[in-house]
Amino acid sequence: MKSKEMKTAAISVLLAGSLLAGCGSVAAGTSTTAGSTAAQTANASTTAAASGSEKAMTLTVAWWGNQVRTDRTTEILNMYSEKHPNVSFDVQPSSWSDYFTKISTAVASQNEPDVLQLGYNSYLPQYASNGALLDLQPYVDSGALDVSSIDQSILDSGTIDGKLVAICAGVNVPAMMYNKTLTDSLGITIKDQMTIDEFEEVCRQIYEKSGVRTDLAYGNSESMMQYIMRGEGMENMFADGKLSADDSSAFVPFFKIYEDGLKEGWMLDAATYAELTLNSVEQSPLIYFSSPETESWCACNWSNQLTAFKKSAPEGMDIAYTTWPASDPKKADYLHPSQYFSCGAHSKNPDEAVAVLNYIINDVDANKVLLAERGIPAASTVANAISSDLSEENQAEIKFIQDVVTPNSSTITPIGPTQSSEVFKAADTLVEQVLYGQTSAEDASAQFFMQASSILGG
Q1: Please, what is the angle between helix 420-435 and helix 252-264, to 10°?
Q2: The whole model's pTM is what?
């Protein structure tokens, strides 16, 4: 996929949307009523795509995410079961920190879920190369899987080694949520496209005036490290399956932010996170804290998470968002395929699994329940059909993507090599050591370069 096409495709999906202004069996729920010709057409195509067999079957559907995502996804699966009484679901929601461990174990035993959520990260090519993901192209060719309103460039992003193994569910962008109630009370204005120096100065001011500290994507180096390095001019951390940097000094700027924050007091130390579920909205230090010493004024997340953060926030806390910080914000920022759905290659009911995938992507009633929680729908007809139903937060997301990010962003970095997930786990461990005061930014960078090179076989 050409980088320019990817960005153009994402923009076109967003513009289309704006022009119109835990594990168990799922019981049948209450279906919404089709309110338009578009809804009736989508529902008809979903029904036609479903397997004609009336045999009873249970499909496993797995995803990670917050409670909002779990509630909405469970509801649409209830709706599907109501239309197809022979189909029930074993739902398997997980936290981000647990999800890929569980899926990797399932993949190793050829027992992957029938339908599973994946992200724009190294797990996608890894599972594809392991033969764990169903090739969806035959279902597209037969008409069972309708991708006619998904831009080809976005569709291509789910193609690995010539096989279509994942369908993009939506588009989002990196977004730093922040406690606007707090910053307003301190007389501090949060600007978009902050540089690292500007960000650190804001962190100092907030800490000095309130004692509230900063959380900079602790436990999520895969996203933040690449973002920071893009801002330093490293468009891609990997080249030909190896690190693209010539020496360890290239990575000092990333680790130095954490070192600066710990030394100056404004960054949360590693001990604060010991009892928290990492990358969880509900247990983000922006939301979940006992004192200013354990509180963060911000959380680096994704634009489609604003609804979940607002729902989870303490009473009286107004949450807004801005861009992540970087030395060169325009080089760092990008439009992002928020999530994908795939089907397990070893599913006992692949036709029905694809029918469920088709339903999630194309059914208007289902998407009026999901309401762009995973990002602005990639299927433009669905984005158009649900735009009037979107919440204030979703409308804010569209405006943020169009007005703030799109004019000030660069092409997304290609998915890294299969071993890159291990590379970023090593980075997470080193960030932890920096925030325990056990190592310096320079030493962490040297260790990272050595460990990453070893992991990548270089």
Answers
A1: 30
A2: 0.73
